[in-house]
Amino acid sequence: SSSSSSSSSSVDEGSPRLTLGDDIYVAEQTIKKSRFVGIAARCDNWADAQSFLATVRTDHPKSRHVCFGFVAGHNPVQERSSDDGEPSGTGGAPILGGIRGEGLSDVVCAVVRYYGGVKLGAGGLIRAYGGTARLVLQNAPTTVLIPKSTVRLRTGAANAGAVYQTASRYGGVAGDESYDAGGNLEVTITCESDSLGDVMEGIRDATRG
Question: Nearest 5°: CA angle at 47, between 41 and 52?
Answer without folding.
Answer: 35
